[in-house]
Amino acid sequence: MVYQEELALEQNTTTIDEQRLLAELAALQRIGQKLNSTLDLGQILEAVLEEAVGATPATHASIHLIDQDTGQLHLRTQRGHSLEQVADMENIEDWPARGIIRRVIETGQTASLSDVSQDPDYYRLVPETRSELAVPICYAGEIVGVINLESPEPAAFSLDSVRFLETLADQAAIAVGNTRRFEDQVRQGEALSRRVEQMAALFEI
Q1: Alpha-carbon distance 147 to 176, whole Å?
Q2: Looking at residue 171, which CATH number applies to its domain?
Q3: 191 in a domain, yes or no?
Q4: Using one digit for the tens of pLDDT, what is the confidence trace for 165-187?
Q5: I want to staple 137 with a disulfide (CB 3.0 to 4.6 A). Which of 5, 108, 145, 201 is the partner?
Q6: Rounded Cα gap, residues 186 and 66, in angstroms
Q7: Is 170 inside any structural domain?
Q8: 194 within domain boundaries
């Protein structure tokens, strides 16, 4: 009897793992389709965050990117925050010198907190948050942003959550890279056009 119960439990666990993996694969396929269909970074980041929230216990989530020119941190998309909290995240001047997101940017390492109250770097934006998961977005060896998830439940994010969010961060990095390459091509094209115009003006003289 005990053996049968153990076997049933093992089979149930296997089924749950298989369902989770299939759901994650489907999520990645949806992100891949989005990457292939648009260069709109905002749309892709929205899709990434939607999949992150759908696959984890997060009640609050956000994606922040670092401005390539100024080095400032900008909120690009979010889920679950109040208008006041969004305003706080968008106010660059008041962004904390510490905080988990800042630490992830500085170290380039994922931060998974089972109890935020025990971490001296935690900056309380959402009062009910008990656990947090923040993953860096890395492109060409550079930290370009962070995906941040929060939950009111302690120890809400499992190792599977960490692994999946890191995979989503890789997809976000591809989107950032595609956008940067496109913008570089546009700038190069504009520079070439100006050069051609200058040469044409010289010949007219």
Answers
A1: 13
A2: 3.30.450.40
A3: no
A4: 999 999 999 999 998 887 667 77
A5: 145
A6: 21
A7: yes
A8: no
Give the Cα separation of 167 and 199 in Å (integer): 48
Residue 201 lies in a domain: no
Domain containing 35: what range?
2-177
Total-model pTM: 0.83
CA distance 96 to 86: 14
